[in-house]
Specification:
about 270 residues, alpha/beta, Arginase, Chain A, 8 strands, binds manganese (II) ion
Length: about 270
């Protein structure tokens, strides 16, 4: 393996004393058309320069578990091995594995997704990164488990998509991130950040950029307050597409969102 994330210790296997783990799923077979997301786990790790590690994180048992293949039992065990699991994609469909793993050990899991796209197309027709949320919800969550999506601005959301959302407890909150502060603070929560939720001027390295996204600062300040107030058990960052990036801007952004998240999480959870 190249550098570990932020110089964290590499753990080969499933740890039993981890406070948090980070791992990658270099998978892009859920991408439609433009691929390259599988390269992101390496690029995001390499977008830091901390061979010696970050002091604030070294006080805790936070391990980089390396990369895992999509859909394996080993991956599930890895995601389940700590109170907080940070997962780097890969295309957005890797969240199906994350939701499966977390839902099996956390009853009443809720999902908060930041995404330019709703991702609720019918998985029966095509199971990919544009249908992952529906697949994950129908397969692994109960009807009562709420799902919130922020930042959706794609052109092409169909009436059938919206109807499915209405009938299945999926709420699109537009671009008002403050709404999310009002959702259940107790429920175990997966925060799934598709990097294309952020404006392409900050995150150019994505397959399907959409204008009018969040600023990078908006997302950082949201993540900071949300991590402090809510019961986060999983954080995923997906859709970084290195060959479309400019000067590693997007990989660096993903790297820093994870890094700040781990630091704030360590401060409040420990
Ligand atoms: Mn997206």
């Amino acid at each position: 393996m190249s550098l570990t994330f932020a110089g964290l210790p590499f753990y080969d296997g499933i740890p039993d004393d981890a406070h948090a783990v980070i791992l990658g799923i270099p998978y892009e077979h859920g991408a439609s058309g433009i691929t390259g997301q599988a390269q992101a786990t390496t690029t995001i790790r390499d977008a830091g320069t901390w061979e010696d590690g970050i002091d604030e994180l070294r006080r805790y048992n936070i391990y980089d578990l390396g990369d895992y293949a999509y859909g394996t039992r080993k991956l599930r065990k890895a995601i389940q091995s700590a109170p907080l699991s940070v997962v780097m994609g890969g295309d957005d469909s890797i969240n199906i594995c994350v939701v499966e793993a977390l839902a099996r050990i956390h009853g009443g899991l809720q999902i908060v997704s930041l995404d330019a796209h709703l991702d609720v197309f019918d998985p029966q027709q095509e199971l990919n990164h544009a249908s992952w949320l529906r697949e994950a919800k129908e397969r692994y969550l109960t009807k009562e488990s709420p799902v919130y999506v922020a930042g959706v601005r794609e052109i092409g959301t169909t009436k059938a998509n919206l109807k499915w959302c209405r009938c299945n407890g999926v709420t699109s909150v537009g671009d008002d991130l403050t709404v999310l502060n009002g959702i259940s603070r107790k429920r175990p929560t997966l925060l799934a950040i598709d990097i294309d939720s952020i404006d392409p001027s900050f995150a150019p390295g994505v397959a399907y950029p959409e204008p009018f996204g969040f600023t990078s600062r908006e997302v950082l300040s949201f993540v900071r307050s949300f991590l402090v107030s809510h019961n986060i058990v999983g954080l995923s960052i997906t859709e970084v597409t290195p060959h479309r990036d400019i000067n590693d801007t997007t990989a660096k952004l993903a790297n820093r969102i994870i890094l700040h998240s781990l630091m704030i999480w360590a401060t409040v959870a420990m």
